Amino acid sequence: MSLELFKLDGRVALITGGTRGLGYVMAQALAEAGADVIVTSREKEKAEAAARAIAESTGRRALGLAVDVTIAEQVEAMVADSVQAFGRIDILINNAGINVRKPIEDFDEASWDLVQNTNLKAPYLCARAVAKTMKSQRYGRVINLSSMLGSIALPERGAYCSSKGGLIQLTKVLALEWAPYNITVNALCPGPIATELNTVVMNNPEANRFFIENIALGRWGRPEEIIGAIIYMASEASSFMTGASMVVDGGWTAR
């Protein structure tokens, strides 16, 4: 009976940036757990290809949508199309994110705005857009992909750290506002995971050595090592957790 808490049969999950990296791994995992899924990308072909792959491998319904999650009108259309296709949205994973690494004095305004809009504004827009549907259902799971760098800092990550820290605070506010509607809102905070976003660090011997030395487990995390956390947070198993931040970082922040 305990394992029944982790099943997602009958649920519908929307994952932004769900065509690659952690987004795709999470979308695939939720489908394997029983959910129908919607994955998004700015590129229609990538979104549709990812959805086909998930549907073929899991037997679940999957939809790929092209959307720029920093534009309110496109986000509203994304939610409307999702509800039209599947009738509901039970799980929202705000995964789309970007990192630009520069010293603060070299940070041009356009790069700063790109990071903030993608990492912080977009989750606000997506959460706002699903609010009506989840409130009417009196059920929802909103999971914001923050980072261990939402709580600690590294040089040259001014925009990224501030956006991810802001996302943790947004998570707490939404958790308080939406608790009366049986909607939980939590943040998942990965540490060093070997994804495309971190390739530039892993390919730099000095930077890679610095990371390995600060990870208690002595290695980069594998994308699939996030699966247990995301299924827990998306399922009934986490029904009494809201406003929380779950860190999966190989022990970095334990130091």
From TrEMBL:
<dbReference type="Pfam" id="PF13561">
    <property type="entry name" value="adh_short_C2"/>
</dbReference>
<feature type="domain" description="Ketoreductase">
    <location>
        <begin position="11"/>
        <end position="191"/>
    </location>
</feature>
<dbReference type="InterPro" id="IPR036291">
    <property type="entry name" value="NAD(P)-bd_dom_sf"/>
</dbReference>
<protein>
    <submittedName>
        <fullName>Glucose 1-dehydrogenase</fullName>
        <ecNumber>1.1.1.47</ecNumber>
    </submittedName>
</protein>
<comment type="similarity">
    <text>Belongs to the short-chain dehydrogenases/reductases (SDR) family.</text>
</comment>
<dbReference type="GO" id="GO:0047936">
    <property type="term" value="F:glucose 1-dehydrogenase [NAD(P)+] activity"/>
</dbReference>
<dbReference type="InterPro" id="IPR057326">
    <property type="entry name" value="KR_dom"/>
</dbReference>
<dbReference type="InterPro" id="IPR002347">
    <property type="entry name" value="SDR_fam"/>
</dbReference>
<dbReference type="InterPro" id="IPR020904">
    <property type="entry name" value="Sc_DH/Rdtase_CS"/>
</dbReference>
<keyword id="KW-0560">Oxidoreductase</keyword>
